[in-house]
Amino acid sequence: QVQLVESGGGLVQAGGSLRLSCAASGTIFSINTMGWYRQAPGKQRELVARITSGGSTNYADSVKGRFTISRDNAKNTAYLQMNSLKPEDTAVYYCNAWVQHTIGRYLEVWGQGTLVTVSS
Question: CA 23 → CA 29, 81, 86, distances in Å?
Fold first, then answer.
């Protein structure tokens, strides 16, 4: 069993900052890509940012220059630093990871989500 637990969501004014954390636990040999997705009310879930085990990153155009994804492989944890937040960033943010739970076998795991609300 592998679990992802997110934390760090909350209410912030436009222009403010939040830092999300995602900690993986359970039977883990390694973690490949870790990412953050978000889903706003009435919209589909979309990719925000992801990072490979080697540190390569990619971002949605809407967050480039404002959000930074990072990870601590020793702690099996990913982070999302969100700066210059806008009301349109309001959404439930989900952590995602591809986890090698047995040698040679990967499992896609999702967190339960954390709500980020940006007030104008």
Answer: 15, 15, 26
